Amino acid sequence: MKKRIVYFTITVAVMLVGLLSRKFMFIFPTSIAPFVGDMLWAMMVYFGFRFLFPKLDLLKNFNIALIFSFAIEISQLYQADWINAIRKTTIGALVLGHGFLWMDLISYFIGITIAVIIDRFLNYTK
């Protein structure tokens, strides 16, 4: 139970940092600033899955978070009216995004990798 509390807390904290990152983008080097939000989003996904499935090993959780993140990004290639209407809402934009970018896939990979390193550092894995 303690693991779930820790992972929930981290998930919420990363989500808040991600939302605030747009306001404070100036603190990041201009070379990485455009990718910080996507990396944080992917980290939130990783820790969200750790919260839901705390007994999963690191590699499985890494793969699930990566597949989920990539699927969301690839879904942005689909531009039907009904899903675009969802994307126009605040929550829809935050979850589904707007347009497919190859660089987002790299950002997700980096963000999830950072999350695994943090997770390993916390020593909550087997």
* Tally of discrete structural domains: 1
Name the overall outline.
globular
Q: Mean of residue pLDDT?
A: 88
Beta-strand residue percentage: under 5%
Q: How large, in whole angstroms, is the Cα Rg?
A: 15 Å
Terminal Cα separation, in Å?
A: 16 Å
For this structure, the quaternary state is single chain
Count the beta strands. Answer: 0
Structural class: mainly alpha
Low-confidence stretches: none
Number of helix segments?
6
Largest sheet: none
Question: Helix content range of the residues, please?
Answer: over 70%
The topology string of helices and strands comes to HHHHHH
What does this structure look like?
This protein has helices at residues 2-21, 33-52, 58-75, 81-87, 90-96, 102-122. By secondary structure, it is mainly α. The chain has one domain (2-122). The longest helix is centred in the last third of the chain and has 21 residues, at 102-122.
Brief write-up:
This protein has 126 residues and is mainly alpha-helical. It has one domain. It is built from six helices and no strands.
Features:
mainly alpha; 6 helices; 126 residues; globular
List the helices and strands and how they pair.
Layout: H1 2-21, H2 33-52, H3 58-75, H4 81-87, H5 90-96, H6 102-122
Transmembrane segments: 5-21, 27-49, 61-80, 100-122
Pfam family, one: DUF2809
Protein name: DUF2809 domain-containing protein
